[in-house]
Amino acid sequence: MSGTPASGSVGSLNPQNPASSIPPASNPKNKEIYKYDAPWNIYSLNWSLRQDKRFRLAIGSFIEEYNNKIQIVTLDEDQGEFVAQPAFNHYYPATKVMWMPDPKGNYTDLLATSGDYLRIWKVSENPTKLECTLNNNQSTGFCAPLTSFDWNEMDPTIIGASSVDTTCTIWGLETQQAIGRTRSVNGHVKTQVIAHDKEVYDIAFSRAGGNRDIFASVGADGSVRLFDLRNLLTSTIIYENRNRTPLLRLAWNRQDPNYIATFAMDSKEVTILDLRVLSTPMATLDNHRGYLNGLAWAPHSSCHICTAGEDCLALIWDIQSMPRAIEDPILAYTAAAEINQIQWSALQPDWIAICILFVSLRLRNDEQLVQECRLDRFMNEINTHVAEVFRRRDKSKLQKNISVFTSNYTAPCLIGALSEHHNKHSTLGMEAFSAYVKCAKYAMNEMPNEALYGRIGYLAGLIALSDAGYPVEQETIHLIVENILREGRYLSQKIGKRRGDYEELVQNRPDAPALPPLMFKWHDKFYLGAAHGFAGILLTLLKVHEKLPNALPEGSLEELILPTTKWLCKLQQPSGNWPSSLGESLNRDRLMQWCHGATGIVPLMLRAYKVTGDEEYLISARRGADAIWERGLLTKGCGLCHGSAGSGYALLSVYQNTGDAKYLTMAAAVALWCADYFTHAERTPDRPLSLFEGNSFQ
Predict the structure, then answer these.
(1) Is 595 annotated among the ligand-binding residues?
(2) 306, 449, 620, 653: least buried by Cβ within 10 Å?
(3) Which residues are CB-contacts of 94 (< 8 A; sequence separation ≥ 6)?
């Protein structure tokens, strides 16, 4: 999410959500950021669940003294500014604040807070009135500190609280309320369980499926435990992390009761659990560079979750590809300081609130999220165009070119299949998928192996289809990989048998690495780069190993692919660049772009490091990135293939794999360069609107 350098974020109305029937306020749409500066640091916050107060938030302070505050702020929809009610005292910092889940307003307008006690406040009166203080230890009169609590959305008369004394207490609220008549509020202990072996840090009731009796908890023993109020004699440990690191937060998917998210103390990773598969995480979200502080599931979607932490980042993820790896978030927003808490509005799923430690509370209405929420509408508009492109696909050149990057046949098939992979009833998706996989027979014939026109370009499409959930047969991938390796091995052996051939290719260098077990050429040249040479081929083969390891012939990774990758690593020049090809070009250091040079080889070095853990690959990638920074602002347009966008992509890849902010800054500088396209397009590419040469990649 782009925006001002401060913080807070939210999107726009989701046409699929019932809340969209509420007309949006006109003035709030005039802004993207809505800020409230509290007179103290903010630690806790929560959105109102009442339809008539959808822009209302409760916030709690973090003051290291005995005078903390709770305040209620409301966005004035006419003025576009926050209006704050007078704050009221809370003594210790509120570990959590939460409005009663009463969208229809059938109950008294109540707010709960936790800290030294569980307190219930009546907000319908001014000033706010403390209705009751709930203490689970009647013998001493003092309550063990409460770490968190949750209000049961299926039955608002039930609240569960977690405590440092290893217990979870389930409270029953007695509002003595008839519709239209308000009386006092009180509470009693329905049950108390020893939930964990150590402190309990969070508790959450199941958010979907209509089951009010199921709740889960996390604690200092590093476990997630499941409880049923109908049978508290036993609990189910659904997950324990290996190091028994304390788990701090717990969030239950609001649309699918099978999914729970959690993260550990001093952790940069969020773990997604499926209750149907005990003990084994379904996915790990690990793009944060600082420790996590908060997470929130989307109220309107089962596959979106937002995470935030000390790295000042709020990230929105799409997890629908589980159990396949989820590598990157779909949206990211950078705040001005550490994000301490995050809340996703249940009534307005296009609004997210975050609070920033030592700064303020801000809200954001983000147009990017508007587009994300309207994805269905967008897809309906372009499906007609996708179908037309698919119908016009050209089969005439399939015997010479099957790469998805340049083919007039396989590319429309791939786009048609991927654009419809979420629609189980789509005939276009399966028809396009079927047409694509039938092209595998051409990969078995005489065909180049490189990326832009050959087998590797087709193999990359198969991997994309498999990632999207299509039933790609592993045997098909195996046969294509086998063809690639067989030809590479045959060419290497052929060169090795003829005295002087390899020596000529490496220019008789005494320090040249030995002949690798795989050799590839295109148009009689041994290219090293990503477009036509070794880098593109080896990178795709390593992806096959990571995603479908059984598709590789036995022993091929250790005996063929990695030795050839190491050979390419050793051809790196003192400048950090690579030559474009073997032979005379080996002594030249001229091209620095994705198709030829370090820009296309650095991603291979990073992938090899990820697979092997060999530091030599990481050092090589860093050297290559530094060389790209020195020479990567190209004058051939701003495309991927031989433009500056390719340079930015490589620098960003190094940052994503190392976490070194230096490379993020470099990538951002390249992005700014590319943004002013016409100033820096001294040499216009042949296809200025294409993916590899033009604006489409940007």
Answers:
(1) yes
(2) 653
(3) 43, 44, 60, 61, 68, 70, 113, 114, 115
